[in-house]
Amino acid sequence: MLNRNLKYVVIAIAVLSAPVAMAADDAGQIKVVNGPVTIERAGQSLPAVTGARIQQADTLRTGAGGSVGVTMLDNTLVSAGPNSVLVIERYAFNSTTHQGQFDAGLRRGTLSMVSGKLAKQSPDAVRVITPTTVLGARGTEFHVQVTD
Amino acid sequence: MRLNELGSVLVIVVLALTAYFVSQQPPAPVAAPQPKTLVVLVPDASGKVGAVSVKSTQGETVISSAYASATATGAAAPVVGSSSAAQVQQTFADTLKARPQPPVSYTLNFLEGSDEYTTESRQTVETVLRELAKRPAAEIAVIGHTDRVGAVEYNDKLSLQRAERVRADFLKRGVSERSISVAGRGEREPLVATADEVAEARNRRVEINIR
Fold it and tell me: Which residues of chain B does A128 touch, with a Cβ-Cβ cutoff of 8 Å?
C-alpha cells in the first residue's frame, strides 16, 4: 500500500515538474515575423507569432516572402530570409558564467547573425551548421546562404 | 602453333588490354548536386569586424576582414573571396529586414537610502518608455543595486525595493506585467569600486536591459 502511494507521489511529481523542464528549454523569443513562417516542435506545426518562445530542437521554416527574427537568451540575434529551414540544434546558456553552446543548423535559405554573450565567452560556442560546412562564429556580424 | 591456340591467345590479350584501359579510366563523376554554402563577414553596427571559421570535410579557413567571403561545397576546400555592401544588400535584404533590434541598457540613479529617482533619471524613465513602445514583444530585466552604506541584508532589500519601484512605475504606464522581470543585487556589483560604508551616488542605481 505504501509502495503504491509512493508510486502516485512519484508520478505526481513528474507531471507537476514537466512544465518546469519545458521552461528550461527556452532558448529565445521571436521578435519579427513577415509572411509565412512556422515553428515545428515535436512533430507539430505551431504558428510563428511575435513574442512566441523558441526552444532547443525547434525548426523554423519560412515560405516564399517569409522571414523571421529571433533574439536568443544570450542576446545573439538570428534572422532567416525566405524559403529557409533553420534548426535550433542545440542551445544552452548559463546567464551567470555566460558559458554554453548554440548550434544553428541552416538546411537551406539565408541567415544573418549578430553574436551575443556566448560568442564573447568562448570562440567555438556559436556555430552555424550547413549541409557542407561548420561555421565557427567568432563575432560579430555575418550572413550565410545555402543554395542547392 | 595451331589456329585455335592462336585464337585463345588473342582472346586473352584482348581481355588483358581491355582490363588495362578500363582501369586507366577516371571514375564516373557522382551526379548528386552539392549544396553550396556562402558566408560573408560584415562590419557590425559599431564598425567592428570579427571572424568566422569555415570548415568543410576538405579543409578549413578563417575569414576576418570586412566583406570577406568563403564559398564551400562538400567536394573541395572552402574558397575565400570578397563581397561588397551592395552584394550583401541584394542577397540578404529580406534577412536583414527581419533582424531583431539590438538589446539596449539604461541606468536609473536614486537618492541616498531611498527609492526616489534623481531628477535626471526621471527623464530617463520617459526615454525607456518611448523605447519600449517601439519594440513588439519587449523583454525587460530590471536589476537594482546599492552603494556600500549599510549592512548587506539592508542593501539586498533596498536594491530589490528600487527595482520594484521601477516595475510599479512601468506597470502604471501600461507596460505588460509578463514582460518585466525584477532582481536585486544589493551591494555586490558596484559600478564604482569603493571601501565598505562609502556613499557613492553612481552605485545607487537600477539597470534596465531591454531586448
Answer: 39
**Which among A72, A128, A141, A148 is the top mutation candidate for probing chain B, defined by the most B β-carbons within 10 Å of its own β-carbon?**
A141
Grid cell 530590471 is found at: B142
B48: contact with A, CB 8 A cutoff? yes
pLDDT band for B20, please (50, 70, 90 cuts): low
How many Cβ pairs within 8 Å bridge chains A and B?
151
Q: Confirm if B39 and A110 have CB atoms less than 8 A apart.
A: no
| DSSP H stretches of helix in chain A | 2-24, 117-121
User: Model-level pTM?
Assistant: 0.80
Are B56 and A133 in contact (CB < 8 Å)? yes
Grid-cell match 551616488, residue found: B201
pLDDT tens digits for range B30-73: 556 678 999 999 999 999 999 999 999 999 999 999 999 999 99
Q: Per-residue pLDDT averaged across A141-147, rounded? A: 97
Residue B73 forms contact with A (CB below 8 Å) = yes
Residue type, A137: A
DSSP state of B202: G
Helix (H) or strand (E) holding B8: helix B3-24
List, for residues B84-98, the tens digit of each pLDDT value: 999 999 999 999 999
Q: Which residues pair with A79 in a beta bridge?
A: A69, A112
Residue bearing the bigger pLDDT, B165 or A121: B165
d(CA B71, CA B61): 10
Q: Quote the CA–CA distance of A68 and A49 in Å, as a whole number.
A: 9
Nearest to A82 by CA among A49, A131, A36, A50: A36
HSE at residue B111, side-chain half, CA atoms within 13 A, is 7
A136 and chain B in contact, CB less than 8 A: yes
